[in-house]
Amino acid sequence: MRFDDRKKRILSAIVETYIRTGEPVGSKTLSEFPEISVSPATVRNEMAALFEMGLLEQPHTSAGRVPSHLGYRAYIDSLMRVKPLTEDEKDGIDALFNISDPDPDKLLADSAEALAEYTGCATVAMTTTPSYVTVEHIDIVPADATTVVLLVIASNGVVKSKVCRLGFRVNTGIADFFRKFAKDRFCGHTLKDISAEFVNAVSIQLGEYSGVFNPLIVGIYELCKEVYDGQYYLGGQEKLLTYNEYSDRALEIMKLISKRDKLGPVIGNNPSGVTVFIGKENSLSQLSGSSLLVARFNIGENDCGTIGLIGPVRMDYSRLIPHLEYFAEKLGTLLSITYQRKTGDENG
Amino acid sequence: MRFDDRKKRILSAIVETYIRTGEPVGSKTLSEFPEISVSPATVRNEMAALFEMGLLEQPHTSAGRVPSHLGYRAYIDSLMRVKPLTEDEKDGIDALFNISDPDPDKLLADSAEALAEYTGCATVAMTTTPSYVTVEHIDIVPADATTVVLLVIASNGVVKSKVCRLGFRVNTGIADFFRKFAKDRFCGHTLKDISAEFVNAVSIQLGEYSGVFNPLIVGIYELCKEVYDGQYYLGGQEKLLTYNEYSDRALEIMKLISKRDKLGPVIGNNPSGVTVFIGKENSLSQLSGSSLLVARFNIGENDCGTIGLIGPVRMDYSRLIPHLEYFAEKLGTLLSITYQRKTGDENG
DNA sequence: TTTAGCACTCATCTCTTTCGAGTGCCAACA
DNA sequence: TGTTGGCACTCGAAAGAGATGAGTGCTAAA
Fold it and tell me: Would the CA dihedral through A281, A287, A292, A294 be positive or negative?
């Protein structure tokens, strides 16, 4: 059976109509489409063929047809006409990022929220840190009689700080000693290396002072871990409630996507551009009723991150895919600037 | 009509049964309660009286009775027997706080999440900063050729830091100059004073360097604002979905409580202990189907915060109120320790 | 004051009927 | 050979009709 041009037009029309209305599409409706304009009976013959080919499904005998997962896949891969973004739409997304001097930590979380608001889907945003990233700089800044600020800078330019309150008074001598000690022990090591065991071993080297300095050592460990773990934020989970597809499954999906160890691996290993997982294509069975659009973005030359949309299988792919792509590109650019090591200035 | 002892026992039984089952309570069920043990007909007479008094409502003629808002109020204010926490329950809550060296910023957010998990309600946690709190200390720490860490310490002990990436190389001289400048201009002022206008005025004093240093000035402003605004976190919003009372209102409530400017004033101005807003007692009309349990806690001597539960009117007050009270007390204690200025050591 | 009795109400459940959108298939037609 | 009109058929959704039963209000007697 040939997947000829008219079959393609009919499949496209079914997908697009079903996305728009949420109702199974019948032969009469389709026959009225100008790009089809054959009788309902002919459409029915074609639909029967598309059903045979596994591209359509039938909720029940006397209902119209809905796209199967294969049908969506064929539509997305080759039939869909992606509408390029209008200048207005681009401006709309640009406006979301129109923040002066964004806080790198908040930018990703805010982006997830903004994207959810913009698309009406739940979103997830994540960054990962390559395993070769090292600790480049460690500092300890006395802020107060017994308070210090710990500072870790990683070789990918990420800076994290943490306030530590200590049980003793920190004078310059103590701070200088610890700073040198910490630099010697941590700098140059990859973040991956800095495990709980590593930290224990370092702590032991402090001998009798081990107990006193332990909060600081642990603090450094936590900062390194935070940098290495990267970020994981959700946005607009409540958007799922607006789709009646989720009437009773929303809670389950919300719980699932909040777990980085579940969703992280799925969205983290994808090529550049937008990857689409339609319904049952998702490796997580709970997502079989949802589609996942994932876009990877690059931060600087080495790091990368992922931002994804979660919504019903019946989502407007032709609109969302280009929007997500543009959004991810913008986000990557902005994060790159934010994290940029201005190494060119080093010698200036 | 006297609100006599038997009426009180019947109202209590209705409230407790309705909370447990979610079904209107009928005279036959009540007559079987050992503490009532009169015939259904007698119970009906009493129920008619309680209805007259506005303490009960009737979903429809042939259904049992449910408590009215007044009924809940009477129950909570004078009838309810609060079950003091068992040692096991106390241990359970203590365990939630069993974190070594908690990060003060994360503690509140984590607490909101833990409380939601523990109670099955949506939660909100907030802190406010008194208007007399001042900027006590400002520091700028070069971390990298063009990166500095800004540090603001407020007089209530809150420390906030922010990484600033600059377009120029920061040497010791520049850092020293700006540190002194910022200290002179900001320290001693209340956080409340540090408005956008204030910051503009300060910026102008930098004359030709105003543009160069502006990101830092703005950074300080943002840090001060962050400290002054305090924190606002939600937890377990998805818990609302587990109550069928919220089948279609969940989205609306979630949107509402995410807005600090809406919910903040309601929960922020309450006396110590647990305050209960039942259904229509809430000033926000969208919460008329929900109850709000709010507990204030003190951080140190001056600051205070609020943690609240949001759930259906039909919530287990006699269990939740003492639990929330104990939770808030623990949270306050832990935050007090975390934020404690060890001023006793200053001269040591 | 309490209680048994009784007629009444009304949401809920189940069963049936009706309705109609949509189908599959066949025969006729271009 | 592909297209179309015709027609019987299917089946979910909506509407209607009882039947059920939990619960009520009221009255009169204990």
Answer: negative
CA nearest to A243, candidates A313, A295, A157, A294: A313
Q: What is the mean pLDDT of each run of 10 residues along chain B (348 residues)?
A: 92 97 95 94 97 95 94 97 94 87 81 96 95 93 85 88 86 94 96 96 93 93 95 95 87 95 94 95 95 95 92 96 97 85 39
CB-CB neighbors (< 8 A) of A251 in chain B: 238, 241-242
Radius of gyration of chain B (CA): 26
Q: What kind and span of H or E run contains A117?
A: helix A104-119
Write down how long chain B is.
Answer: 348
**Comparing C-alpha atoms, which of A169, A164, A129, A186 is closest to residue A335?**
A129
Are A119 and A309 in contact by the 8 Å Cβ rule? The answer is: yes
Q: Out of A143, A153, A215, name the one closest to residue B139 (CB).
A: A143
CA triple B40-B41-B46, angle to 5 deg? 95
Q: Is B265 exposed, middle or buried (0-12, 13-18, 19+ CB in 10 A)?
A: exposed
- State how far residue A338 is from chain B, nearest Cα, in angstroms: 8
Nucleotides of C under 7 A from a protein CB: 2-5, 8-11, 20-26
For A301, phi and psi rounded to 5 degrees?
-95, -25
Report H helices in chain B.
5-21, 27-31, 40-52, 69-74, 87-96, 104-119, 172-186, 196-204, 210-229, 250-257, 260-268, 317-339
Residue B86 CB-density burial (10 A; 0-12 exposed, 13-18 middle, 19+ buried): exposed
Tell if the pTM clears 0.85, that is, is over it. yes
